[in-house]
Amino acid sequence: MNNNIFPCLWYDGDAKESAEFYCNVFSGKITADTPVVMNIEVFGQKIMLLNGGPQFKKNASVSFMVICETEDEVQKYWDKLLVDGMALMPLDSYSWSKKYGWVQDKYGVTWQIFLGEKASEQKIVPTLMFIHGNNGKAKEAMELYTHIFPNSKIGKILKYGDGSEGHPIAEPEENIQHAHFEIDGYSFFCMDNSYDHQFDFNEGISMVVMTDDQEQTDKYWNSLTSDGGRESMCGWLKDKFGFSWQIVPKRLIELMGDSDQMKAQKVVQAIMKMQKIIIQDLEDAYNS
């Protein structure tokens, strides 16, 4: 499993409280604890929690599938996540799983708790919902992402027309009801949905990609922003589907984590002026 790719959840001041909550729910541990960034590890997977401010709210366009081995395990996570949260789909038996439910927790993160087989060794799988103008583009997105990143593949695809499962809205037969893909060994699920949800992809949930060097940084940045994507600040971008990525050189983390606070601060100030992160400019700021 690739821990150079991981989700980032956006918070308005309550990242630490949320980190402690998830560590309790999933028996995880906090691996970084700063006023702005909290990192946690659950089931060997990294999740970043960012105190970014009130601008963005997390929503169900990106949910997290938790694949469980027993009904008791499903029940345990469900009961904990439901405290002060709300059920989006009740915990029940469905055609695709003997025990499944979709819950929004008290921090606005949505989880699909699922009894079933894992598609990879990954226990928690980000699930992207292609809605509104993106509806019908899940396959195109999978093809784009697996083309950009190495060690990538498209796994099993279930289309609405495959006819195994009832659905409340008549979806186009070619659209994807559920599919699995991997980018550089990290698993995702995705789906098309024609329901008129009151939300869409935003910066509330993004994917972080840690890069080895400038060449890799440039490749991912240029590939994801081309053809209708948008550059944002500090290594953030939106791809053509409006999904947010952070392309972050590993060297940045090293420099920002330097024990010399003054030098680390210069690096932070340099990033604030950048869109795509330029490693040499960081080194120059650090050494200035």
From TrEMBL:
A Pfam family reported for this protein in Swiss-Prot or TrEMBL: 3-dmu-9_3-mt
Provenance organism: Chryseobacterium oryctis
Ranges in coiled-coil conformation: none
Domain PhnB-like residue range list: 4-113, 122-248
InterPro entries per the UniProt record, alphabetical: Glyas_Bleomycin-R_OHBP_Dase, PhnB-like
Superkingdom of source: Bacteria
Protein name: VOC family protein
